[in-house]
UniProtKB/TrEMBL annotation:
Keyword GTP-binding: no
Name of protein: Zinc-dependent metalloprotease
Basic and acidic residues bias locations: 427-446
Organism annotation: Kutzneria chonburiensis
Taxonomic path: Bacteria, Bacillati, Actinomycetota, Actinomycetes, Pseudonocardiales
Alphabetized InterPro entries for the sequence: Zinicin_2, Zinicin_2_N
Pfam families hit by this protein: Zincin_2
Length: 446
């Protein structure tokens, strides 16, 4: 293996030593071994220090399935090397852009402003501010995967392994942390807002833009930087309106990811093969095993259902934001339509978020029905007004379903016939009462 983690170098092969190497007698004074390469005691000390730090992290990481301290450390180190600390000095420009965007959004939606503060984040800020949400998302996944093979072991095997199981668990947490750290570093270098991946990752009520990443994003667009930052600020502010004033939405999105994770099942037949490939004293062997696909989760019917719900909900969020932002900035920014299309393609084709989730947990965050959702929201707004359109977010049972995305015209007609826009909650309660009464009276009375 050539890509050893944590900065270690390959150990010398004992079979390559000279015939007189036993006892170290062939090493001349001054530390020059056979072959003329000096022995670097400083490098040995650094290696031992790293090893001690790794083991200390494994013991103090709380015993969870992922070593998040290691993940954070790896992500921040990679970002520091690539200049990921830039951008925090542009708070004034971000604040002005968000303020302007909020004024433009006011007549385009009935949902009031949701962002209480606007911030300019660097890539490292993004890691620090979103890590707690990533922990919520990845803990169930890592717990299922890392614990599956231990649970599958016979009782006598567990007893024989003894303390070794705890050591392997710590190493597994470090391996997950290493993978997550690398993924977060890549993601932090590309996202342009706190809601760029479609999930509410940052603190509630905080509209955050990443100016350094926006500058890179603007490079190939041939649009003024001021126009791009206002457009992205409008998207961020629109997301914050949804996540702040639709109380169930944030929880439903994150809970659906957790539901997907709880359904993970690992092929126990592959565990026997995995056991032959893992060296508990070598973290790299565990990470290699995870990358090999042997622990790749099997998709269950429950997971497919959760994934469908997640894709639909992400599409509805992105479609609503697309329509509202289009109405808000369409006549004010000359390049708005081109920017809308660029971002629609970026989200629909699967950006960095999709690779992050697909690599680590087999879960894609691609809103496959984004255009269909935008068309549905546009149709509802045109036929019934923005009050009815935005009123559908009042309760999760009111929002369009996957089937509604297939036939938005039928949904709009049904919406008009039920007069849902007058009082959506009252209509929902009436429907629930009717269903309850039918259940109590029996099928013959329905």
């Amino acid at each position: 293996m050539t890509d050893l983690p944590f900065g270690f170098n390959p150990s010398p092969n004992p079979d390559d030593r000279g015939e007189g190497s036993s006892g170290g007698g062939n090493t001349p004074p001054g530390g020059m071994p056979p072959g003329g390469v000096p022995f670097d005691m400083g490098q040995l000390g650094q290696m031992l220090s790293q090893l001690g730090q790794m083991l200390s992290q494994a013991q103090t990481s709380g015993g969870g399935p992922v070593n998040y301290e290691l993940a954070k450390q790896i992500a921040l180190q990679q970002l520091a090397q690539s200049g990921g600390t830039a951008g925090a000095d542009q708070t004034s420009a971000v604040t002005d852009a968000v303020h302007l965007a909020e004024m433009w959004l006011d007549p385009a939606t009935t949902l009031p402003a949701g962002a209480r503060v606007a911030k300019a984040w660097s890539a490292t800020d993004w890691v620090n501010e979103t890590l707690s949400t990533w922990q919520r998302l990845f803990d169930p996944v890592a717990q299922r995967v890392s614990g599956a093979w231990v649970d599958a072991l016979p009782a006598e095997a567990k007893a024989a392994a003894g303390p070794m199981l705890a050591m392997v668990g710590q190493m597994g947490g470090m391996a997950f942390g290493s993978q997550l750290g690398n993924a977060l570093a890549q993601l932090a270098a590309e996202v342009v807002t706190s809601t760029d991946v479609g999930l509410p990752l940052g603190p509630e009520g905080t509209a955050a833009l990443l100016p350094a990443n926006i500058e890179k994003f603007t490079g190939g667009l041939e649009r003024p930087a001021s126009e791009v930052i206002v457009f992205l600020a409008a998207r961020e502010a629109a997301h914050q309106r949804l996540f702040t004033h639709v109380p169930w939405l944030r929880q439903r999105l994150l809970a659906t990811v957790e539901e997907f994770a709880r359904g993970i099942k690992v092929d126990t037949a592959a565990l026997e093969q995995l056991a032959t490939q893992i060296d508990p004293s070598n973290p790299a062997s565990i990470e290699d095993a995870m990358r090999s696909g042997l622990l790749e989760p099997q998709t269950t019917p429950e997971q497919k259902a959760a994934l469908t719900r997640l894709e639909t909900l992400l599409a509805l969020v992105e479609g609503w934001v697309d329509v509202v932002v289009g109405d808000a900035v369409g006549e004010r920014l000359p390049g708005a339509e081109a920017l809308r299309e660029t971002l629609r393609r970026r989200r629909a084709s699967g950006g960095p978020a999709e690779q992050t989730f697909a690599t680590l947990v087999g879960l894609e965050l691609r809103p496959r029905r984004l255009r269909a959702a935008a068309a549905l929201w546009r149709l509802v707004g045109d036929q019934h007004g923005i009050e009815t359109r935005d009123g559908l977010w009042a309760h999760p049972d009111l929002i369009p379903t996957t089937e509604d995305l297939d036939d938005p015209m039928e949904f709009a007609e049904r919406l008009g016939g039920s007069q849902l826009g007058d009082d959506p909650i009252a209509e929902l309660e009436r429907t629930e009462r009717e269903e309850k009464e039918r259940g109590e009276n029996g099928p013959d009375q329905s």
